[in-house]
Each structure stands twice: as structure tokens, then as C-alpha cells.
Design brief:
Strand order of the largest sheet: 1-2-3-4-5
Number of helices: 11
Helix content: 25-40%
């Protein structure tokens, strides 16, 4: 088969089609328009480049649709071509959030960030974080002081990722009905806490970083970090810079699941290469926000058992 024919075949088969046929399902909660996460048991593949590219977040595997078939099935290239040809014209199921693309005026990342209002008490975003996510006011105000939070559309949160110089490179977007990352932004690290601290607690989401900070009471000397659920070269470089500080401790506070363990292993490798202290810190639930909410539920139950909650006033008799 000539190169032209190979490219034509490659262009007619989507990575999502290969994954759907192989038994993978889209994880809507963990997906964005630009990076769609597919799961099959403990296997994870993220599809990018409008369905033409992919990578495995738990290894270094990545490539095009041909390499994906080889990655999944371990077959020779001639068999790869046959299996790809069988999928020509096959359209995978569309995800719920897919919408037609519209042209928007070009606005810089910095302008978009500055245009959003800082988080303020009583707003829809504040209520979402306080009542649905159970984040305490002291943590939210600390993040506000450090210019880490903005109010997104429809009561959602924007949580800034910044580089070593404090420049905003992008932001995590979280809300009652939405999860994503800023279009055109770059994942580095969400950072909350003491900039000159030496204890670096690495989580997978900004809300988890703030939840761990709440559970620990914003521990002195700690910097609470989020990779935004990804692991970009810029994230790797930022973590290596932090780990190189004399006296540093790298705390792998990633989720209590297979992906969290894979990220923890990467953090251990960074710590060992830098010669710094390393610790694995697992949440009691799947992630730190779930652990925080469980702690809040237990506190309510304790107050109820002690009769500490105010009772409804009885109506006057007579």
C-alpha cells in the first residue's frame, strides 16, 4: 500500500471507533471537547486532535489510529491495516456535550482571565463551593487573596494554573454541570499556600487541592498543588523545580484509584531523581473532596447525636 493510500485510510478511521469496538466507554465526567477519556476496566486512553490522535496517561504510549490498534491488539502492521479498513465508515457514538463549532473573536488568555469576576461571598459560584463541595470559607478566602479563583459562567469555578513566575497559563473549569480546561490554556500547576514552602502536596484537581488544605487546616509550610488531571511536560518541569529545593518533601496526594497510583509512581520517580523526601498520602474516599464531604457528614451526625443542632421552634399553643 502506497503512502498516499495509507494516509487516506488513516484519515477515514477515528481513534474513538477503534476504542468503542474494543469495549471502551467514554468517561464524560473526566472528558473535555479537546481530550476525550475512554475507559475499559483499569485501561485508559485519551483521544485528542479531533479523534486523530491518542495517548495513554498511565504510560508513554501515544500516536495515531494505526499505533492505537497495535497498542491494543499487539498485531503486525499488515493486520493493523486490515482492522483499520474494517472500520472505514464506522461512526462512534457521539458524546453528550458535543456541539457544532462556532467562530469566536480572538481574545488573549490574560484578557479572558481578567474579564471574569473574582470569587465573592454569596455568588452562585461561592454557593456551589460552600454547599455542594463543602469547602470552608477560610480556604476560599486564602485562594482569593492569592488571585487563584474566578467566577465562570453559570455558577462554575475557574481555578488558575500558574508557572514558576506566577503567570496564569490556563485554568481548570468546574461547575455543577461542567468540567473542563480553558481553551488555548496550558496545564502547569494550580498552587495554593506558602509559595516558599517545602512540603508540596500534589493532587489531580484544584478542588481536591483546596479540600486537602481544608482537612489539614492549611498546614504551615505546605503548598497545595493540582495537575488538573493531566501530566504535561510543563507540569513535569514545574514539579522537578519544586522537588529540587533543599529540604523539599513531595507528597503524592493523588486519588485512591489506579490512575492516582500511576501518578504517585511518577511523583516518586521525580523525588528520587531530585533526592528529596517522598510520601504517599491517600484520601479516605476516592478523592479529597469526597473525603471532605464525608467528614462534613460525620460532623453533622455527631452534632445530631449530641443534640447540638438547633431544633425547629414549636408553634404556640392555644
Amino acid at each position: 500500500m502506497e503512502q498516499r493510500e495509507l494516509e487516506e485510510l488513516k484519515g477515514r478511521v477515528l481513534c474513538a471507533a477503534v476504542l468503542e469496538k474494543a469495549g471502551f466507554a467514554v468517561d464524560l465526567k473526566e472528558s473535555t471537547r479537546r481530550a476525550v477519556k475512554h475507559r475499559r476496566g483499569s485501561d485508559i486512553v485519551i483521544v485528542i486532535h479531533e479523534g486523530r490522535g491518542w495517548f495513554d496517561p498511565l504510560s508513554d504510549a501515544k500516536g495515531d489510529v494505526f499505533s492505537l490498534i497495535q497498542h491494543l491488539d499487539g498485531v503486525a502492521f499488515t493486520e493493523v491495516l486490515l482492522r483499520a479498513a474494517e472500520l472505514v465508515g464506522y461512526r462512534p457514538a457521539e458524546t453528550a456535550w458535543q456541539r457544532p463549532r462556532t467562530q469566536r473573536p480572538t481574545v488573549s488568555l490574560a484578557e479572558r482571565w481578567r474579564a471574569r469576576r473574582a470569587l465573592r461571598p454569596g455568588s452562585a459560584t461561592w454557593r456551589y463551593l460552600r454547599h455542594e463541595r463543602h469547602l470552608p470559607e477560610i480556604v476560599l478566602r486564602a485562594a482569593i487573596r492569592q488571585e487563584r479563583l474566578r467566577e465562570g459562567p453559570l455558577g462554575s469555578l475557574w481555578a488558575a494554573h500558574v508557572d514558576d513566575g506566577g503567570i496564569v497559563t490556563g485554568w481548570e473549569e468546574r461547575g455543577p454541570q461542567w468540567r473542563g480546561f480553558s481553551t488555548g490554556g496550558a496545564k502547569v500547576l494550580f498552587r495554593l499556600g506558602v509559595p516558599a514552602g517545602l512540603r508540596f502536596c500534589v493532587t489531580e484537581a484544584a478542588i481536591d487541592a483546596m479540600s486537602l488544605a481544608a482537612i489539614e487546616g492549611l498546614r504551615d509550610g505546605s503548598l497545595y498543588l493540582s495537575t488538573g488531571g493531566g501530566w504535561s511536560p510543563a507540569t513535569q518541569a514545574a514539579l522537578q523545580t519544586l522537588a529540587a529545593r533543599p529540604g523539599a518533601q513531595l507528597v503524592a496526594a493523588t486519588d485512591a484509584n489506579s490512575q492516582g497510583e500511576a501518578y504517585a509512581s511518577r511523583l516518586r520517580e521525580i523525588a528520587e531523581a531530585a533526592g528529596c523526601d517522598w510520601l504517599r498520602l491517600r484520601p479516605a474516599a476516592d478523592d479529597w473532596n469526597e473525603a471532605l464531604k464525608e467528614k462534613a457528614r460525620e460532623e453533622v451526625e455527631r452534632r445530631q447525636r449530641r443534640g447540638g443542632l438547633p431544633h425547629a421552634r414549636r408553634p404556640h399553643q392555644g
